[in-house]
Amino acid sequence: MNVAALISGIGTDALNTFLRHRVDSHSTILRIIVWSSATASCMYWLLVACMYRQKPNTQPLDDTHQHQHQRPVCIQLRELMRDPILWRLAAFMVVLFGARSVLRHVDATLPKYLQRTQGNDVLYGSVYAINPVIIIVFAPVLQIVLARADIYRCVTIGTLLTALAPFSFVLFINMNAAILFMILLSFGEALYSPRLYDYAMALAPDHQEGAYSTLASAPLFLVTLLTGAIGGDLLEHYCKSNQITTNSVITTTIILSTESPLEQWNDSCQFMWLIIGCIALTTPFILFTSRCALENDEMRIRLRSITINQSSQLIDQSQEIAQLIEDDDDDDNEENV
User: Fold this and answer.
1) What is the pLDDT of residue 279?
2) Domain at 75-318: CATH code
3) Maximum alpha-carbon separation in the chain
C-alpha cells in the first residue's frame, strides 16, 4: 500500500507537469488523474479476479475450533459484546480519532490548502510521497528497536508527534512547512500505527482475533467520513480561494486593514491548522491522563506477555541467524583448507 502511495504521489506530479500547458483548466487535470486511477484500479481488480484461486482447507479442525463453529452466531456475538476488554479497546480506538484525522487531512485538506497558498502549479504529490518513503524505511526499523517497549507508551508518543505536525503550518506559510508537516506526521505514524494491531491482537482472546482486528480498523473509516466534512468546512471559512499567500502580503494587509491583527489572523489559513492541531492534541492528552481508565489489570498482563513473547522470538531469530553465519564461515574455512 505504501509503495502504491509513493508511486501515486510521484505520478501525480509527473502527470500534472506534463498536462499543465496542454489543457485549459486545472480541474481537467484532476479529472484525468481520477479517471486514470479508476482505470488502473479496474485493471488490477480484473487481474486479481482472473488469477486468484483459493485452495480448499483440507485439514480437520480441532475440538476447540469445531465447537466454536458449531455455536450459533448470535450467542458468539452476545458473549463478545459482554467482554469488558472489548469495550475498553473500543474506547481506546475512539480516542485515537484526533491523531488519525491528521493523516486524513493529508488527502482531504492539504492539496487544496497548498493550491490556495502556493498556486495551482504546486507539486503536492512530491510532498505526499514523503510519507510512504518514511513508512517503508523506518517503520520496520522502529518496530524491531522498540519490540520490548511498552505498546501504550509507543502509541502515546507516536500520536504526540502526529499531533504536532499541523502546527508547522501555524508557524510558516511555505513548502518547508509542508515538508516538516509530512516528516513529523510520518515518523509519528511509523511509531504508533503498527503497534495498534499489536495492541488489539495482544488483548484478543483465542479464536476472536478477527473481531478485535476489525475493531482496530473501524475508527479509520469513521475518521475518513468525518475528516472530509471538517476539512471542507474549515477551508470554506478560514482558507478561501482568494486567500493571501505570502508572509509579506499578510503583514502589509494587517497594517492597512481596519480589522485588528487578531481578527485578521482568525480569518487566515494558519488558524485553520491551529484548529486541526488542537483536535489532534486531544489524543495524546487523553492517552497520557486516562491510562487507568482505558486499561485494567487483565489487559496489562496480556500486553506484558505479548511483549515478552515478541522479545523471545527476536532473540531466537537472532541466534538462528548467528548460527547460520557461523556455519557458513566454517564451510568456507573447510573449503580453503
Assistant:
1) 94
2) 1.20.1250.20
3) 90
